[in-house]
Design brief:
25% strand, six-stranded antiparallel β-sheet, alpha+beta, Beta-Lactamase, Heat Shock Protein 90, 4 domains
């Protein structure tokens, strides 16, 4: 739409284009007659600003055109239409305005869009302010850093922090974070890194540190592709980070608590079980023997409960580590079968292994944890089976090896929740309601950690748990049959010629270990603290093995091991085996670094102790060769 009007003050219309009727609804002949002035069409609220723009331009002869701010005009129906106008000033020879030519463009949609953008901008600013997000812009060429008001407010500077240098920005970053910040920035700006994303601590004006989640982008590059402008957003995550720190502190405290509880419970449990097992050998009366067996069984049940609670705690804190070794599947099944054979016989159950594998098959797994998984399942199967059988079945499906545990027990009604922690079947009919309900939760968590698929089928006739152990591996080529036979023989009975030092601050624990070893032909010395142990080793340089407790007065087991290591070359140092009641692996890495060979957790029986000693001797033999 075009129009031509006269000079101030009334803006009498001289000409309007014919499309005014279409745009504003006015009859063209009515406006063209001069009956309506241009100023009368402009909304009163916008007229003063429009007149001021026009007056300023009219007085300054350098102005030829004016781009007006959008304004509203009234249409014939009383509505309002936003207009964006460009005016050309016609002047006489002295420079005075004589008339005005204008191009008017309907700008309602443009103005509406601009208002929406402004609203979005306001909301974004509000969101940034409330969520603790600020930005700064780095001129890569000059090193100047421009900070927005939100960033300034977050760090306590108020809204008007002036432009600073990159050097000052570096000075505000925690020295422990600065190297990584500089390194990532340099790699990102040179194209060696695709993203810039890290958390750094930035100093607040009050001296405190604010954790800032920092992300950056390059917004402008030079003609050769080198960066000109780098813009970073920083989100204040101090509260979240402090919560993480508090949680870790609490976790550390809980770890220490569990370690203390473990030590304080396992130590007397080791004494109780050790003395009871020694007592069994001295009893002639069958009734007395049965009473001792019951005490042992209940003590072991307490130990199983402790192990379940501690294992679940480790899983919750991701402290439980998984190892990998090549293991024979049938040997794993036989190991578990030996563990539970007597319990099954005592209950009158047929407990068998059904091996459908054509040959020995090997898998890569954490053997000890797989045995723990199967033990939990078989323990439940025996507990909840009145009569009938429990079977360990080995089979292959396509390329994968499976182990199943099948029983003829009471079955599981609610299969969907049986793996939840603390959940148990309601067994009012069976009377087998004992236990914590942690076993199957631990099984599921261990299977997930070891990437073992577990499936369950159950009805009133019994239950079957199946474990997919993955693809079978080739038999190890470096297995020395004579070495295995020698190890097996040694682990059972033969400690003739071995001189072993038992170090423990508990008289009972020393007595138990000494009797286990003497019965197998070993010469046994003893010490009740780490300091005495070091003196004993210095005096008897022919000691083969030191069984070392961890927590002792005067000198701990770790410190004593370190002192012994200093006294000997690696190959001549006595083998140090830890006997610890700690369930959590606190300081164990340090202990192994100082010369520890093996670690045995209390309580243990003679068979386990002898097996660990044999393993350590085997390891020393390989090192020596």
């Amino acid at each position: 739409m075009f129009c031509h009007w006269g000079p101030l003050p009334d803006f009498s219309l001289i000409f309007v284009s014919s499309n005014i009727a279409k745009i504003l609804g006015y009859r063209h002949d009515l406006i063209a007659s001069g009956a309506i002035s241009f100023s009368s069409l402009i909304l009163e609220d916008d007229l003063s600003n429009f007149e001021a723009e026009l007056a300023t331009a009219s007085e300054d002869t350098t102005y030829e055109t004016i781009k007006h701010e959008p304004f509203r005009v009234k249409d014939a129906n009383g509505g309002l239409v936003w207009i964006r106008q460009t005016t050309t000033i016609k002047r006489d020879e002295l420079g005075y305005p004589t008339s005005f030519m204008a191009e008017l463009v309907v700008a309602s949609e443009i103005v509406k869009t601009q208002e929406e953008l402004n609203n979005i901008s306001r909301r974004m600013k509000l969101a940034m302010q409330t969520s603790g997000v600020g930005t700064w812009e780095l001129n890569v060429k000059t090193g100047a850093v421009s900070c927005d008001s939100f960033w300034s407010i977050i760090l306590g500077f108020g809204r008007d922090l002036p432009t600073i240098t990159i050097t000052r920005l570096f000075a505000m970053i925690n020295p422990d974070d600065l190297f990584e910040f500089k390194n990532q920035l340099e790699q990102f700006l040179t194209g060696k890194k695709e993203s810039f994303d890290l958390v750094v601590r930035v100093r607040h004006i009050d001296g405190s540190w604010r954790y800032m989640l920092t992300k950056g982008v390059i917004t402008d590059v030079d003609f050769d592709g080198s960066p000109i402008t780098f813009v970073a957003s920083q989100t204040d995550i101090t509260k979240q980070k402090q919560s993480e720190i508090d949680a870790l502190d609490a976790l550390g405290s809980r770890n220490q608590f569990f370690a203390r509880v473990s030590h304080e419970i396992r130590t007397p449990m080791h004494g109780i079980l050790g003395i009871l097992n020694l007592l069994k050998r001295e009893l002639d009366s069958q009734s007395a023997l049965e009473q001792v067996e019951k005490v042992i069984e209940n003590s072991e049940q307490l130990l199983f409960l402790l192990n379940d609670v501690l294992d679940l705690a480790k899983l919750n804190e991701t402290q439980l580590t998984i190892t990998s070794e090549l293991s024979c599947v049938i040997e794993i099944a036989e190991s578990v079968h030996r563990l539970f054979k007597e319990k099954a016989i005592d209950k009158g159950l047929a407990f068998t292994i059904t091996n459908k594998l054509s040959d020995k098959h090997y898998i890569v797994c954490d053997k000890a944890r797989l045995i723990q998984i199967l033990s939990n399942i078989i323990s439940n199967s025996i507990k909840f089976t009145h009569d009938g059988f429990v079977t360990i079945e080995l089979f292959q499906k396509e390329q994968n090896i499976y182990i199943s545990v099948i029983d003829s027990g009471v079955g599981i009604k609610d299969v969907s929740s049986i793996f939840d922690a603390y959940q148990q079947e309601s067994n009012t009919q069976t009377g087998f309601g004992k236990g914590t309900g942690l076993g199957l939760e631990i099984v599921q968590r261990l299977c997930k950690l070891m990437k073992i698929d577990i499936s369950l089928e159950s009805n009133e006739s019994g239950t079957e748990f199946s474990f997919d152990l993955g693809v079978a591996k080739s038999q190890p080529l470096d297995v020395d049959v004579s070495d295995i036979a020698e190890l097996a023989e040694l682990s059972l009975e033969n400690f003739d010629g071995l001189k072993i030092l038992v170090v423990d601050d508990s008289d009972i624990n020393r007595e138990i270990a000494e009797q286990m070893l003497v019965e197998r032909g070993a010469t046994v010395l003893s010490a009740d603290n780490g300091y005495e142990a070091v003196k004993e080793v210095a005096k008897n340089n022919d000691i083969d093995i030191v069984l070392m407790d961890k927590h002792m007065p005067k000198m701990s087991g770790i410190e004593a091991t370190e002192q012994i290591k200093v006294m000997f070359a690696e190959k001549t140092m006595p083998i140090v085996i830890a006997l610890t009641a700690d369930a959590f692996e606190v300081d164990n890495a340090v202990w192994f670094k100082h010369g520890l060979c093996e670690l045995l957790t209390k309580p243990f029986d003679a068979k386990v102790l002898c097996t660990v000693i044999a393993k350590a001797l085997k390891k020393r033999k390989l090192v020596a060769s």
